[in-house]
Batch of 4 targets.
Target 1
Amino acid sequence: MVANEKSSKISGFYKLSIEQRIEIVKKFSDISDEDISNLKKPIDLSLADTMIENVIGTFEIPIGIAMNFTINGEDKLIPMATEESSVVAAASNAAKIARIHGGFKTEISDPLMIGQIQILGVKDIPKAASAIIEKKQEILKVANAQDKILVGLGGGAKDIEVRILETSNQEMIVVHLIVDVRDAMGANAVNTMVEALAPIMEELTDGYIRLKILSNLADKRIAKAKAVFDKEQMGGEKNIDAFLESYSLASIDPYRAATHNKGIMNGIDAVIVATGNDFRAIEAGAHAYAARKGQYSSLTKYSKDESGNLVGEIELPVAVGIVGGAGSIHPKAKFCKKILNIQSAKQLSEIIASVGLAQNFAAVFALSTVGIQKGHMSLHARNIAMMAGANKDELDIVAEKMVKEGNVRMDRAKEILESMK
Ligand code: NAD
């Protein structure tokens, strides 16, 4: 069943008991018995109480492990926290097809985030803009004085950009502070810096500051991943052509692109949540980036190589951290990062981009061949059976019958349950 302890190609994982699966993950990663006991129980209410306000409990969602991933030559087991059925299985299947041609190859930019400072009421905008550019070094010094740790690690404020924008009744200067946030997501780090710059900006421009906040359109912090999906495994050239036809709609139509990109985020968000990162930040950045050319479009692109295999590529902003934020205090996020065996935010970005591509490939492949419902149906049928009141023993019987009949509906589940009584 298991190829070797460090291979992520583990067949039949889904057939094992939870205990057996944990044992395999334990052999693969550097996790302790204490980690495992933390995994099995909800986080302490006292910890939750320090994370947000007005706490009354915690909300559990499942963590599953995606198999088969090879990323830049290294095998990874990938923890995914999601409530949606089929996501983990689909990512694993896609990764299995991609590993035939070496898996996922990635390219990650420096971890540069943008902080915005909005300056209003400036009488002479060109003069004020020049004054800011002239004082760049002084501005960077003030920003860097806010985060000695980051600067000590080789990060910190690196550059500024000055933009002049106008609404129907007002012109304004918007200064972008470019900050290398190293292994952090960086929102707090950047926000502290831009807030500290308000007085110097007012002094230089003779205007007043309104907003001073991070931009989630992290278009200087880009992750790219690429993989070749095997022609034979995909059932031959006709399926690749069908795939490319399906993909073409996402490349030209925002109505399709929104759903296409949602499929990407099914995978990405699951890793973001599992590692305690900010999924709203990633979502905002991804969708804004998808619209960067003026029309909302696909975050992936596909083509055929000279052998007729499918080549998939993804490009999106990935503002994630392995230090700071909730990921540093949530025991399950710490556990999931251990499984991933990552030492930098860059490595986490490599995984996230690869999972996004795998998830998208799996969805488009299913859609362009058998349709999405087939894969979803058995788990969906179990959910419907459960909602209709089936107990543990009745669940599979009711679900199987509904799938067989091609009639997965609550009223039918209730009828079957009734007939079993
Ligand atoms: P943070 O402030 O908790 O941690 C970052 C700090 O850790 C750095 O400033 C640095 O001083 C220190 N550090 C230690 N080792 C480091 C290393 N190797 N690399 C980088 N920094 C290191 O977290 P953060 O990443 O600045 O902020 C993330 C949090 O901000 C998230 O919880 C997010 O939800 C929240 N947030 C997001 C937004 C937004 O997205 N618009 C706005 C506000 C807050």
Target 2
Amino acid sequence: MCGIVGYIGWQKAQDVVMNGLEKLEYRGYDSSGIATIFNGQLKLSKYKGRLSVLSKHLEEDPHQGHVGIGHTRWATHGQPSDVNSHPHINESNSVAVIHNGIIENYRELKKELIDEGYIFKSQTDTEVVVHMIDKYLKTSVDILSAVNMAVSRLRGAYALGIISKADPDKIIAVRKESPLIVGIGDGENFFASDIPAILEYTREIYYVDNDETAVISKDDIIFYDKDKNIIKKDKFTITWDMDAATKGGYPHFMLKEINEQPKAVADTILRRIDENNNLILDDIRIDDTQIQNINDIYIVACGTAYNAGLIGKYVIENIANIRVRVDIASEFRYNKQFINDKTLVILVSQSGETADTLAAQKLAKAKGCRILSITNVVGSSVARNSDDVFYTLAGPEIAVASTKAYTTMLAAFYMIGIELAKLKREISINEYHKIVELLKKLPQKVEETLKTEEKCIEIAEKIKNAKSAFYIGRGLDDSVGKEGALKLKEISYIYTESFAAGELKHGTIALIEENTPVIAVLTQDKLLEKTISNIQEVKARGAYTIIITDKDSNDIANYADDIVVVPKVYDLFSSILAVIPAQFIAYHTSIKKGNDVDKPRNLAKSVTVE
Ligand code: F6R
């Protein structure tokens, strides 16, 4: 997904902007560019391809200015190309614009501008913004007024960064629906779409909210609300450091993040348990009466967060006895929703900036639902617009394939499920304390599960040339399989599907041939024999079968070609361990195939377009 960075101050803008863009590479992109102003001249460099392509050009023809903006583009309108890359400039080469998001009404604006004589060079939606600013500059007193006029014409999502020869000592940054932060320096200031871009320079930041504009000069930052009134904003201090956002000795972010799971899960769980085994969920302020009022729960999310929601449904339904529905966020708006003020909507989003999830949030709010979000990013859009927020404390997740965010989301659901069960009196206080005691042991069990890596490397070697693969399981294990399949396909590019084990025989079993890998997740005692029968069905048809289980391997040795054993925990918590071998298998298969594990093709870390 696109990344934006801006700088104004005493350093060379090129150095700071390029450094910042490198830190955002993990977001996924296909082209990049930079614009600076120096001695009254606006200079532009932008190219299709990796940042190294832009760097090479900058070595030959460097920028000297101390004010600049830069962008990594992930194509939405118009294919990746030099001309479609950002920044975009006006015809007189006096204004440059970078943009994250999508301008939904760009076609009508483009037509209006073309009718007025503007010539478009690119196929992007963004180019309308720069021409619109140019148009209003002709009648405005300054660049800020022109930007305000232009922005008032836009519909859609945008984080914009603008520099202009008319006012070379300022950068203007505007936000609607796309993430934007402003970093505070000493004799220098910054803006970016994401914290790692500027963390090397400052820890003091402002989160820009929707419809706000920042006018950034080297010694000053002024914020305006949507009515153009100057507003005062609270500063935030970032507590995690660059080390947490870099590889720390591991060859890839994904491997580092898999190995960080014991700590991430411990951070998420342990600080929320007091010495008497009570959960302290002080960010969730749903009281006794409100909880009795809740008829049902909707969990809404995308991708891995959706898969975590499937586990959340199972846990909440089984322990708290509340009906739960899980919806894919991009479908939620278009489905028939049975939601009202008696519905609790739980939004799950690592980044807290996923456009589909934000759109679902808007709708749920409009229908009067109480909104609880589970997110990893403090101050993110999802968090700021929720009634209650459960922060997973996974630290920054950089690899595109989510791992520690998923396991901490499961930890969040376990805690929410247990608390709801207590509030609804579905479990006695005694049971409650016992389950919390079991929860406390999970980080240690996650640590022990990391020992499965070696076995997973062997399995990766055996499946690396497969054309397709399958995960099967029942109940919770089926949901773990969904996440296992997503991990394997997104980074190994092996076509992988996950099925409820009993469903295979209704069609999909036709795809099983000699050596097709079938990975069965087997942790649920009550479903054990049934799933074993389904494993036999695929084994009889030549499948290479692997079981991920918490059972004694001697008891099931005959049923599979390979077995990965994870520690035994309370049945309801088994998924948080069973998923770890699935992450390792995906990671090592991808490595063995020589893929770019942290930046898989066609994918972006934070999907801020619908
Ligand atoms: C897959 C993955 C994605 C995200 C999805 C939602 O490994 O990371 O499927 O889970 O794009 O992202 P968030 O959780 O940021 O809303």
Target 3
Amino acid sequence: METNIKKILNDIKQLKIQGATNIAKAGLRAYIFKHDSKTKKQLINARPTEPLLVNVLNKADKEGQEFILKHLEITQEKINKFVLKLIKNNSVVFTHCHSLSVVNALIYAKKKGKKFEVYNTETRPLYQGRKTATELAKAGIKITNFIDSGARIALTKSQDTRDVDLIFFGADAILKKGVINKVGSGMFAESAFLNKIPIYILADSWKFANKIKLEERDFKEVWKKTPKGIKIKNPAFEMIPKKYVKAIISDLGILSYDKFLKNVR
Ligand code: RUB
């Protein structure tokens, strides 16, 4: 029992388990195994930028596991249906990192017969974009994987790429001022805004938080044997200011940012 919790904690810390939803589900499994405040604290501290994990663990005390898993399932089903309506045939969708909410919705659209292709970014330093690309390719979705610094080329028509029609990002946290998602998201959002590409956030409303600590990860993920005199910055997340977000697609529906904020509290 003890080993299972240790393994889950390590897997979350090392990003073998990644993405807000997977982290919350794994955290819930561990907390059900060992239902005490020490375990809860350890889980919450494993990835500090995850309000869904915090909410799920708090709700586990009152509502129980089944209610939570059902809620997460229903949220994904709602997201899938909204995304299906948004994707037009022959469109290009852009995404970054690995979001289960996004990947599941795209696979659902493909299964429902939508014809579209996806551009995504590799997401250095841990390459979660490769996970996204692999899963989409496996589902038969045409996918082109770009280096992170090629994002502007990915977003707008270039030599052999098309204009992106819409962007789907997941979220780690939804704050009053903007959405927190994988580092790079804010930069892509600025470029998308300049090019009038709509950004949709696919996320559970339980990711709403008043305040959140932004995780900064080990420099070794970026450059293991850094020569002397070089400081490495490895921020895991950044904010997409709310003015760049067309709508949030969640269990509360497809809502403008302000409407989401009104409904979530
Ligand atoms: C993952 C990431 C995802 C969100 C949402 O970052 O930024 O977009 O967590 O994911 P990391 P989901 O790889 O550092 O965990 O839609 O699966 O909840």
Target 4
Amino acid sequence: MKSVKVKKQTRALAGALSFPGDKSLSHRAILFGSLAEGKSHFTNVLPGGDCVCTKEAFESLGVEIRTHSPTELTIHGRGLDSLEVPKKEIYLGNSGTSMRLLLGVLAGQPFEATLTGDASLSSRPMRRVTDYLKKMGALVEGRDHANFAPLKIRGGKLKSIEANLPVPSAQVKSALLLAGLYADGKTTVTEPAKSRDHTERFLKYFGGRIEEQGLRVSIQGGQRLEAREFRIAGDISSAAFFMAMALLVPGSALEFKSVLDNPTRTGVLEVLKRMGVRFDNYRRGGLGGPEPAADFSLVSQPLKAFEIKKEELPPLIDEIPILTVLATQARGRSIIHEAEELRVKETDRIHSMVSTLSTLGAQIRAEGNSLFIEGPTPLKGAVVNSFKDHRTAMSLVVAGLVAQGETTVEDIECIDTSFPGFFELLKQTGAFFQTLTP
Ligand code: S3P
């Protein structure tokens, strides 16, 4: 088990930071590049464990992917209908996005495949996707009526459906739109609130046609996708940990370069503004490709408590762990309402953040699925465990930088799933820490 020792950071952090490619975008670049016709080329692809799983999955489906460097890929797309039967089970590690999106693609293939994952992924609910895919005509088997991996899926001729999702989920929406590419007629997905729209943007950018009307997206089956080339914007969910450090460590000033600036992902910036945060030198930068990016800088500053309503959760769902850390240092009571989706992430993030931040001395409690955090509260260094969840782990490292004394965060290998290079970048800012490998 690898761990890291962090001390209260007394020296200001500084630097201009670029981030690895956005995880959601990197998955989709590999997926769309594989399903398009022709040669796609992407740079700044996230080489994290989750995206490596997506890449290896498409390789096992017969797609030739040339890895020029860990972050630069050329994909020889096979088109929608020429994937090959995988020779063995497809292992998707910790990655919910890989599993849910791939289920959508496999639903359209005239062969059988088995998807597996680690203990966390095997306990995450998949019926939210497989129930719909079964309605479309795919055969899916797995524990609890195809709710848990390993999942065996045999696709084929699909019928279009109209799906009204009970919870906003980009993974479910994406799986159904991808299956919709293979279905007869028009598949429509309606969400109760808008989740990240990367799949819609990628579909259009790769030459597909969709109809969008508010919370409804429709796709006609029988389309073709064309190869594309672009650079992937930095991951805003990864940048959020450094935004928190810039705000919390006195005297700090950090510059953020080419961070994904898609409004369905920038909820964290909106909440920071409500906390009184001033962003400097904000500039939209054109990377080309399907998604906008921006540069900005942040200096340490006082923070006010915030409230996040249920309907505001989708554009910041992955940033709740780090927002709970910020809330411990903000003036007043912060409230995050009805965040039940956090219970089914890589770990139960309501439990992971309440238990670990309480150990560090924070005043944080959950009532049902809502979180209440009082601030500012001085944190005290202690030994805490990441629950093998990358975002819990990085949030605790940030908490350790403001806690008195020394904090040890255990089980930090998981950070590599979304942010390989996290500690190199942390070092670049001037933070003190020591990683310990047994
Ligand atoms: C993702 C969607 C979100 C998010 C996950 C990535 C995606 O999950 O939490 O980290 O790339 O589509 P849900 O769609 O389940 O909310």
